[in-house]
Amino acid sequence: MQKKTIRLGGVPEHFNLPIHLAIEDGSFESRGVQIEWTTFKGGTGQMTKALRNGEVDACILLTEGIIKDIIAGNSSKIISGYVNTPLIWGVHTGAKNSLQHYKEIYQKQYGISRLGSGSHLMAIVDATVNDKKIIKEQFTIIKNLDGALESLEALETDVFYWEKYTTKPYVDSGQLRRIGEFITPWPCFMIAATDQILEQEPESITRMLRTIHDSCDSFMQREDNIALVAERYGQRRKDVERWYHATEWAIHGWVSDKMLRSVVHNLQVAEIISEDAPIPDLVWKR
After folding, report:
1. Per the CB 3.0–4.6 Å rule, which of 56, 254, 272, 282 could disulfide with 9?
2. Is the overall model pTM greater than 0.70, yes or no?
3. What share of the chain has pLDDT > 70, as a percent?
């Protein structure tokens, strides 16, 4: 069987370990697919740009980010859920910042990885849920977690949203202070692919998805998964236990229409997309 190379991207976080394990144990190759992995430290905003530019064929992205970008003209489709549970965003500030309380953040300066990124969209959704409004001048682009650490340390920004357990080592070391949490009101990660690869290689994409789903299923059954995550990602076992038992991966490609409508509604309420914006097909019709 001739192996088709699929260029797949994602963030350097523990959620993607099932994919890395499948690459390492040859599961993709056994199904006739070669995975060329790219790590995107800049998160969903960086990945939607890469999909638009044809730099990758598929990515694992935040649900709200890929939906927003498809509506904005990204020629891609959601091809499967990836993590079915919500993301817990830590709301962080710098060690030297005088900011103390979550309720005080809405007038402050926010560090975001990119416009349209999760750190940007979740800050707006959070403010909207709490009947607050953030203006565009309150956002400073810091590119990634490393940029956020520098910006918060220098007091150039005051607030930074990032996945709670990824930032936990920096909270433990005292570089960051977590002053609040915000739970995404929908499943956190989707897998999306460009229209071009879906038209050219639908069978390869299907084989890739089956491999990812099988690897996610196997990962959730492993007895050593918590120890494995702790070792690979430099996290405390008790933190990994909490994260693991609050996380469920998708083992099939079904995506809820109701969930998609809810995300679109929330993005409209938060004025991230306009109420009259046409909504294209968001999900790949096999």
Report:
1. 56
2. yes
3. 99
Can you tell me the distance from the alpha carbon of 197 to that of 179, in angstroms, rounded to the nearest whole number?
42
Q: Which domains does the chain have, with CATH numbers?
A: 4-86+187-269 (3.40.190.10), 88-183 (3.40.190.10)
What does the pLDDT average to over 186-193? 97
d(CA 148, CA 162): 10
- Partners of 36 in the beta sheet? 7
Contact between residue 120 and residue 113 where contact means Cβ atoms under 8 Å apart: yes
- Sheet containing strand 110-112, edge to edge, reads 139-141, 110-112, 159-163, 88-94, 176-183
Check if the beta carbon of residue 121 is closer than 8 Å to that of residue 196. Answer: no
C-alpha–C-alpha distance, residues 165 and 208, integer Å:
28
Task: Give the number of residues written for the chain.
Answer: 286
